[in-house]
Amino acid sequence: MITLTLVALSLFLLVAFLVKELWRPANYPPGKIIIIQRRLLQLLQQRFRAFDMSGGMLNQLPWLHFIAPEWSGYNLVRRFNKQLFEFFTPTIEQHQQTFTDDKAGDDLIYAYIKEIREHKDVSDTNFTDVQLTMIILHLFIAGGHTTSTTLDLAFMTMLMRPDIQKKIHEEIDSQLDRAITPHYNDHLKLPYVEAFLLEVHRFFTIAPLSGPRRAITDCTLGGYRIPKNTTVLMGLRNIHMDPKHWGDPEVFRPEQFLDEDRQIFNTERLFAFGQGKRRCLGEILARSCLFTLFVGVMQRFSLVKPDDGSEGSDMAPSLTLKPGITLSAKPYNVVFQPRNRTGMNRPLMLI
What is the pTM of this model? Predict the structure, then answer.
């Protein structure tokens, strides 16, 4: 039995996925990579909590970091950013020492080092050591919290909607070889899973407001005059809960993203990753992480409520999410029951 919060599990899975897929740590002794992942997980959790407490206020009142840097949480966020920066520096230095051109094909750090060396004589290049570290930070900070929270809510929905879990298991079992690890390319074979994940984005809308945008000219929208340079935020939850488009928005229904031929459609009003030129640059990576991790877990486990009296308690799954600059699930108990796989005859309890 392993005891941890399900949010921590989702974030750990994401960290392990990104570390594995984006770079291959070189010359680490056995077990070292696990220590690295755990330390990174700890730093990310602390940084996410700090930003949830202060990020919204600093975003709306940015001048606070000048007059009250400690009280506003600005200094705390900067301290965690510095620790994360220092965390990645040794890995980058190690890659620089072991770099060869043939390693740049499947490793983000090696690929970027190659670009740095090819642009070393360009005076205004953006390919620098500092920029490389910032890119890695952004991958984990900007996408880690939202993606792991979405994964956690997907697992919670499996508990609350066993009818949907049954359909997901049936589709995965009919389309994928259980002995083979799922890949994002498999999403074309699993339209119901794709529709389910889209509905998780819509129904929960963990980022109720978009990032701030600036009006570049005077304009009128919906009868309201918006002067040039006005900061504009979109109410994404209002869009995702508009009955004029969704019909019954309070009902969790993956089928609304499937047409008669079971092809994905009806996504033009889904703004989980934004729209237009400012659409999230990490969308493909986030979708790949979310799909691969979710399908990998569901391929091997059934999620059931524990028989521990937690039903009706504070540890029962709830549609009431924790507030913050992004919304997240409250901690809840769940049993991950192996699905009749050899050598996996005991349930795994995650709290």
Answer: 0.83
